[in-house]
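name: query_chain
kind: protein
chains: 1
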Amino acid sequence: MISLRQLSKSYDDGASFAVRELDLEVNDGEFLVLLGESGCGKTTTLKMINRLIEPTSGTIIVDGEDITTVDPVALRRRIGYVFQGIGLFPHMTVAENIGAVPHLLGWTETDTTDRVNELLELIELPPDHYRERSPSDLSGGQLQRVGVARALAARPRLMLMDEPFGALDPITRDSLQREFRQLQADLTLTVVMVTHDMTEALLLADRIAVMAAGEIRQVGTPHELLRNATDDYVAGLMATPKRQADEVERLLREGDET
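structure:
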């Protein structure tokens, strides 16, 4: 589905690199997470996939096409994109926000309305109650649901997500993570998600690509990274959720003993 080949990005004519000679394959229907600390190049990588940022060198293949041969606007309209700030148009209703891309693609009013209603049902926001609401009337979790629905509106096979759940409270975040993971599986979406949250990556991803200083240090399943880290940096990252899990287990044992 996605192939990144020797992908590099420099903002200063090669004096330094945000992303350096990155090779990565993302399989059709896979949920892949780009994991790393702030400034490691993961968001730059994500944005290069839909040409929000142009690479300095290297090749990006999406669904068999070199993306440099595709009009960037047309490319973005067939790729779902969700980010932490959500970015709903404040002057438009929920229905208008979700239907924005189908409208740009020339869908009929009936087809757009049907798709908006279908998606609102899918994200458990009943159309009769939410179609005409303004984004300012919604909670953070509801806004994020609408953001996901808007990204799905034109039936993309690929979705890019940049820290989509980071601004939510823990309970809402956990709920939306589980709901989206089920939605991704049901729709067989190919997803590339950026996060710096190790636990989120471990719980959601089929595979994780750990990045540092613009390079990929290791790619593997959550189990592989937890059990067989081949890089000291990766081992250090994985030690944190393991240590937290051990601490929770210790607290549970203490409670059972009292």
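note: The first helix runs from residue 42 to 49.
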